[in-house]
Specification:
With 311 residues, the protein is of the alpha+beta class. It folds into two domains: 165 residues, Uridine Diphospho-n-acetylenolpyruvylglucosamine Reductase, domain 3, CATH 3.30.465; 121 residues, FAD-linked oxidase, cap domain/gating helix (Vanillyl-alcohol Oxidase, Chain A, domain 3, 3-Layer(aba) Sandwich). Helices cover 29% and strands 25% of the residues. The strands form four sheets. A seven-stranded antiparallel beta sheet has the order 13-10-12-11-15-16-14. Strands 3-4-8-6-7 form a five-stranded antiparallel beta sheet. Strands 1-2 form a two-stranded parallel ribbon. Strand 15 and strand 16 form a beta hairpin. The mean pLDDT is 92.
Length: 311
């Protein structure tokens, strides 16, 4: 059964009816719930329905020189609801954080059709339990995210990227260590091997005022990063239709883990310990709290009508 609600009331009714029948909901199309409900530029907050795409939201916010500081792949197709459900992120994760860091309020339709709220529409809000983080990354298994309120940031005046190539992963690791010990505060700190020579490439990104960015670029050059860069490697990696695998390790174990992957294409958030790769086999999956996830699923969706969490 696929649900295609026209509004929030329709969504609640459809989920409630499926719950009463005990019918499995195999798909939910929230394309009709795509409005910006409120935007307060002076408070740097926005409230949206979850069917709006991230690209459209960013375009509207840019009109007021603001943005939601998150940059996952394929924003033209990714809805805000899916962004929250899969906890997506991108290269700027190192400096800007994840979507949970910017979420201040949420409305969710539970498996029985009830509407619950967490947080509010202002940044300083402590009302109720912090249920929002429970639904982020739940893949829609605990409830259907209907609306979300985010705190925003001003668009940076300037943004620039710089990179350096290395013969080995160990050389790149030494450069990363030097960067982390420096005064630099990059928003992007990525390591990839998607260049034509298939060698490790370290990419730094800086954002802020023009003076601040220029100063950081000069300091990065002193540390050996001298080649102008961009985020083309990120687009190339995610344009491949083959599914990507991912690993999450301690940042200090990133290079060691990449070394064990062997001959595989990868993009690593070197400052966060998140590795996306293709081609490696037999890699140990991340440990997940499977028992806890199943208990939560049973508590929130006892009839198992919503999608299952991929474990």
């Amino acid at each position: 059964m696929t649900i295609r609600p026209l509004n929030l009331t329709d969504l609640k009714t459809s989920v409630s009816d499926a719950h009463e029948r005990g019918e499995k909901v195999t798909g939910i199309d929230l394309g009709a719930l795509d409005r910006i409900l409120a935007h307060s530029p002076e408070d740097l907050t926005v409230t949206v329905e979850s069917g709006i795409t991230l690209a459209r939201l960013q375009a509207e916010l840019a009109r007021r020189s603001q943005w939601l500081p998150i940059d996952p792949p394929n924003p033209e197709q990714l809805t805000v609801g899916a962004l929250l459900a899969i906890n997506a992120s991108g290269p700027r994760r190192y400096g800007c954080g994840m979507i949970r860091d910017h979420l201040i309020g949420i409305k969710v339709v539970l498996a029985d059709g009830r509407l619950v709220k967490s947080g509010g529409k202002v940044v300083k809000n402590v009302a109720g339990y912090d249920l929002a983080r429970l639904f982020i990354g739940s893949y829609g298994s605990l409830g259907v995210i209907a609306e979300a309120t985010f705190k925003l940031r001003p668009l940076p005046e300037a943004e620039s990227f710089i990179q350096a190539d290395y013969r080995t992963l160990e050389e790149a690791e030494g450069s990363i260590a030097s960067l982390l010990d420096s005064e630099l505060t990059p928003v992007v700190l990525d390591l990839h091997n998607l260049s034509t020579r298939n060698i490790p490439v370290l990419v730094l990104g800086f954002a802020g005022s023009r003076e601040e960015v220029d100063w950081q670029l000069e300091k990065a050059r002193e540390l050996g990063l001298k080649e102008p860069a961009g985020l083309d490697y990120e687009k190339r990696f995610w344009s491949d239709e083959a599914p990507a695998q991912w690993l999450s390790v301690l940042p200090s174990q990133t290079v060691e883990t990449l070394g064990r992957l062997g001959n595989t294409s990868f993009v690593a958030r070197a400052g966060n310990g998140v590795i996306y790769h293709r081609g490696a086999t037999g890699q140990r999956k991340n440990d997940l709290p499977v028992k806890l996830a199943r208990r939560l699923k049973k508590a929130f969706d006892p009839k198992q009508i919503l999608p299952d969490l991929p474990l």
